[in-house]
């Protein structure tokens, strides 16, 4: 109750002085000499994140399905910040081939990479769709494309951190909706892909957002094992009216948003947690955590399982391997069993 009142009043949520009403500009320090890739920066939360990072002096790379939309975004940033260093490059996250092509192009530029903000996302309108790699489209876009993108860029991030002494940071934009999925996410994807159960767009979205949190957990552990001076955290940005939910027609959706309107964030507020985790000195060295309202928060119990994080990693690697070697992504291979080790539990 106290938390809800705090949220509505926008009082600071923690010792850092930032809370639900903080804006991206308020939480973002100077970022000169920093290079950031921000996916989904043509609209909504990602666009505001890119604008604020560029305003603070970062070189911003905007990968986008629509190069025209990304060029428009670059023009908007430069209107406000003349001379801002903004690069536009094609990327469709639902296609693993497109992710590989983007990573090759970016790495060929020889630029450093300090920040990777995996923000792009979609919420399906209802019908089951499969990506060109045969993967459920929401999972492919919101999670799998970002998994591969991160895998391909993490070496450059580690090199940059070692050369510059500036810690690299990866931010996965998840959602509190990750806690709405209860059950076996791999089985759900397998059954839905085989059309054995009806497709439910909200469940598919929740699975993809759960995957964002599990990915963060496994990635943070691997970065530590590698000895890379790079952190990985994930965020719930808050609820905000963007294209993600604005395009979802219907009286029910409109009613829910009307009722929740007092709790909704503005877009500058919704971009704040991403910017805080990506850039604020207080988050230096913090890794594998979940943030909301610019403060650390607790993810759902399902999102804290080491076993599920390892299983997701293994399945993701298997899919990527299949698509890279032109092998059929047969579902048996997509979802192989994983042996649970004794003593492995939730942490
Ligand atoms: N809005 C909320 O209330 C809310 C709440 C919790 C979490 N989130 C999360 O916040 C993130 C940003 O969402 P938003 O609300 O800002 O949504 P948005 O305004 O719809 O923006 C989504 C962005 O993702 C891009 N995108 C979608 N599919 C893509 C693909 N296949 N390849 C490359 N880019 C793609 C879009 O590019 P195009 O221009 O090409 O479509 C757009 O730039 C998402 O991860 C979402 O799940 C949002």
From TrEMBL:
The keyword Nucleotide-binding does not apply. It comes from the Eukaryota. One of its GO terms (molecular function) is oxidoreductase activity. The keyword Lipoprotein does not apply. Gene3D superfamilies: NAD(P)-binding Rossmann-like Domain. Coiled coil: none annotated. Keywords: Oxidoreductase. Belongs to the short-chain dehydrogenases/reductases (SDR) family. This is Short-chain dehydrogenase TIC 32, chloroplastic. It comes from Eleusine coracana subsp. coracana.
């Amino acid at each position: 109750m106290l938390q809800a009142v705090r949220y509505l009043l926008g009082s600071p949520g923690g010792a850092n002085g930032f809370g639900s009403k903080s804006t991206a500009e308020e939480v973002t320090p100077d970022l000169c000499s920093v290079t950031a890739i921000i996916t989904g920066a043509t609209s909504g939360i990602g666009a505001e994140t890119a604008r604020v990072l560029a305003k603070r002096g970062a070189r911003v790379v905007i990968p986008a399905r629509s190069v025209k939309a990304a060029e428009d975004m670059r023009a908007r940033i430069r209107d406000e910040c003349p001379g801002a260093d903004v690069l536009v490059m094609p990327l469709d996250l639902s296609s693993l081939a497109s992710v590989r092509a983007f990573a090759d192009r970016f790495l060929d530029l020889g630029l450093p990479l300090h920040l990777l903000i995996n923000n792009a996302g979609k919420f399906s309108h209802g019908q089951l769709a499969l990506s060109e790699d045969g993967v459920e489209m929401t999972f492919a876009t919101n999670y799998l494309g970002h998994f591969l993108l991160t895998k391909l860029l993490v070496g450059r991030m580690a090199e940059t951190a070692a050369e510059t002494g500036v810690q690299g940071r990866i931010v996965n934009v998840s959602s509190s909706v990750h806690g709405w999925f209860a059950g076996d996410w791999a089985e759900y994807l397998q059954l839905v892909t085989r059309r054995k159960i009806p497709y439910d767009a909200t469940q598919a979205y929740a699975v993809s957002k759960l995957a964002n949190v599990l990915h963060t957990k496994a990635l943070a552990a691997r970065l530590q094992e590698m000895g890379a001076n790079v952190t990985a955290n994930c965020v719930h940005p808050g609820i905000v009216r963007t294209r993600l939910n604005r395009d979802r027609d219907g009286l029910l959706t409109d009613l829910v948003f009307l009722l929740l309107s007092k709790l909704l964030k503005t877009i500058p507020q919704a971009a704040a947690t991403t910017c805080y985790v990506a850039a604020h000195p207080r988050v230096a060295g913090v890794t594998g955590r979940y943030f909301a309202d610019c403060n650390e928060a607790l993810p759902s119990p399902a999102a804290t399982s080491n076993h599920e994080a390892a299983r997701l990693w293994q399945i993701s690697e298997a899919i990527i391997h299949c698509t890279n070697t032109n092998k059929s992504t047969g579902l048996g291979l997509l979802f192989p069993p994983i042996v649970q080790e004794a003593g492995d539990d939730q942490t």
